[in-house]
């Protein structure tokens, strides 16, 4: 049963724990709420649990205990169709994972045709619109090997958007890019934020987190230590561990 508070949330995470078989305690009593239309940046040192947390939001990682509700669906309820839920949650990874034997346009067309049974013509029209949206209207017929890293990541974003998700998850989307290519990918994500897309972004780009996020989550050793506005996180950080982290990365 979803209560009134959760109706405003696109993501509700309550007291989530995650243990790996080797005994690693990856998430420790994590509770977080993400509102519809909100952009939340997740920051913290390597190994702090950021990516694990993100991957639990579409069950790429299963939790050990706790509760996660995404888009009004209790992810671990017995009658939940996780594959159906994943269609409403777009995911963009560090690596681009494009099919090398298909053009950029064909990569974007594929999921709507296979999963949503869209006709080839309808899928192509949608894919062309999305390629323009990410600034790649002149590279539709290019194969991934002919695209820069930034261009490949923008194709990956268009591919995720092709399923018309209600929530987008980004797992360090610029970490595999050369520095000069980072901006073009962040600009696309900023555009989605302006359009009101609900997003959770794990990132090392502190400037992006400060400028675009509505809230910033700071994680350390699997625990969520800070959940606050970008201004509070970056201008007046109160938590000692956050102060130490920012001193090293800013």
From TrEMBL:
Entry's Gene Ontology cellular component terms: plasma membrane
Coiled coil: none
Annotated membrane topology: Peripheral membrane protein
Location of the protein in the cell: Cell inner membrane
Pfam family, one: ABC_tran
Keyword terms: Amino-acid transport, ATP-binding, Nucleotide-binding, Transport
Protein name (Swiss-Prot/TrEMBL): Glutamine transport ATP-binding protein GlnQ
Species of origin: Vibrio palustris
Upper lineage: Bacteria, Pseudomonadati, Pseudomonadota, Gammaproteobacteria, Vibrionales
């Amino acid at each position: 049963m979803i209560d009134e508070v959760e109706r405003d949330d696109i993501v509700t995470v309550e007291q989530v724990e995650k243990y790996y078989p080797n005994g690693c305690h990856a998430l420790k009593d994590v509770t977080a709420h993400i509102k519809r239309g909100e952009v939340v940046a997740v920051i913290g040192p390597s190994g702090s649990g950021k990516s694990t947390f993100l991957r639990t939001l579409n069950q790429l990682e299963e939790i050990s205990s706790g509760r996660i509700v995404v888009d009004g669906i209790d992810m671990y309820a017995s009658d939940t169709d996780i594959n159906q839920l994943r269609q409403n949650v777009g995911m963009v990874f560090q690596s681009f994972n494009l099919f090398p034997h298909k053009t950029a346009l064909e990569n974007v067309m594929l999921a709507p045709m296979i999963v949503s049974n869209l006709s080839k013509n309808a899928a192509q029209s949608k894919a062309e619109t999305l390629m323009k949206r990410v600034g790649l209207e002149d590279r539709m017929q290019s194969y991934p090997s002919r695209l820069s890293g930034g261009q490949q990541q923008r194709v990956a974003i268009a591919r995720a958007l092709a399923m018309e998700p209600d929530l987008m998850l980004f797992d360090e989307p610029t970490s595999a890019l050369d520095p000069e290519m980072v901006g073009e990918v962040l600009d696309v994500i900023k555009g989605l934020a302006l359009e009101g897309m609900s997003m959770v972004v794990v990132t090392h780009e502190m400037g992006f987190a400060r400028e675009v996020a509505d809230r910033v989550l700071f994680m350390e050793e699997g625990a969520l230590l800070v959940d606050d506005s970008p201004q509070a996180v970056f201008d007046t950080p109160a938590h000692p561990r956050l102060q130490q982290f920012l001193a090293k990365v800013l």
